[in-house]
């Protein structure tokens, strides 16, 4: 009853709705833009799902929501499976990549990703603990390594590490956020983790922020909160407003990624994006030109 009472007026009429506990993390509309959208400082159901396939898609957003702000009548969702996550994002010669869902309030609904590596699976950042997700990942080979890109997105790392008896990597400068992590990246040098995954320290958003790069060609960039894609501006952006450590250092760290050959940008927050060959460098140069024009007060989230 409370949930219905708290239904936001911005929702379209119908059985699915967002209630007032929404924290505006963006997970729902990034996952299912056909039915969810941001409106003001929260999200809403802009179009009701129709038919089983669309209802199943909206149900994924319901499961993913970190604060259970998405509501739907039980009779509509009773037959749907809670083990739909992780869902495939892209195939890659160095390991197929999946979106984990089950976002955590502790990381403000940040995205986490699973790489099915040939020599063991890697979890990039932590979803909230979920028995159905753990069961599914176990069937997919478990988790060998957890990479924590920075202090904000560690969420339930302890549960995942315990369940899969795997090592966690975090940068030394953010290590107080996960002091149990077994491995630390130090300094600014890139660190290869196995044959196909490299960790690159990118201080700025936090002192110990780092990104992970999969592959040598057509690379996949797991960017944490260092940068992301903005669909409206059609640009790579970062945010000075959400920079917790040093904005000028963050801009320097953005430049460090210029020569990568990125085919997919998969961030912790903000939109993911696929790039055709050559587009990454062009897009990042455009963003950096904007930042240099307006430095030191530039906020490349305002980039147009
Ligand atoms: S996933 Fe939940 S908290 Fe996040 S924007 Fe959507 S309704 Fe709000």
From TrEMBL:
Name of the protein in its database record: Zn-dependent hydrolase
Phylogenetic classification of the source organism: Bacteria, Bacillati, Cyanobacteriota, Cyanophyceae, Synechococcales
Source taxon at top rank: Bacteria
Keywords from the UniProt entry: Hydrolase
Gene Ontology molecular function: any one: hydrolase activity
Domain Metallo-beta-lactamase: 109-269
CDD domains on file: YmaE-like_MBL-fold
SMART domains in alphabetical order: Lactamase_B
């Amino acid at each position: 009853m409370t949930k219905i009472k708290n239904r936001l007026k911005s929702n379209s009429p119908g059985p699915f709705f967002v209630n007032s506990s929404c924290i505006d993390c963006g997970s729902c509309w990034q996952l299912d833009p056909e039915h969810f959208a941001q409106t003001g400082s929260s999200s809403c159901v802009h179009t009701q799902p129709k038919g089983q396939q669309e209802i199943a898609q909206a149900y994924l957003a319901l499961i993913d929501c970190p604060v259970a702000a998405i509501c739907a009548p039980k009779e509509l969702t009773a037959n749907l499976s809670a083990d739909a996550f992780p869902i495939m994002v892209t195939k890659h010669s160095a390991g197929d990549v999946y979106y984990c869902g089950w976002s955590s309030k502790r990381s403000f609904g940040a995205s986490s990703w699973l790489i099915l590596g040939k020599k063991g699976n890697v979890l990039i950042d932590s979803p909230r603990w979920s028995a159905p997700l753990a069961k599914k990942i176990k069937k997919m080979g478990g988790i060998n390594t957890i990479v924590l890109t920075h202090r904000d997105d560690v969420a339930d790392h302890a549960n995942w590490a315990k369940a899969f008896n795997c090592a966690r990597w975090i940068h030394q400068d953010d290590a107080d956020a996960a002091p149990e992590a077994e491995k630390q990246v130090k300094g600014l040098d890139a660190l290869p983790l196995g044959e196909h995954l490299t960790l690159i320290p990118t201080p700025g958003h936090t002192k110990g922020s780092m990104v992970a790069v999969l592959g040598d060609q057509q690379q996949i960039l797991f960017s944490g909160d260092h940068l992301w894609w903005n669909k409206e501006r059609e640009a790579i952006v970062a945010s000075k407003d959400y920079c917790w450590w040093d904005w000028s250092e963050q801009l320097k760290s953005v430049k460090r990624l210029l020569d990568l050959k990125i085919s997919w940008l998969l961030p912790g927050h903000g939109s993911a994006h696929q790039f055709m060959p050559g587009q990454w460098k062009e897009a990042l140069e455009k963003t950096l030109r904007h930042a240099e024009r307006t430095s030191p007060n530039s906020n490349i989230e305002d980039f147009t």
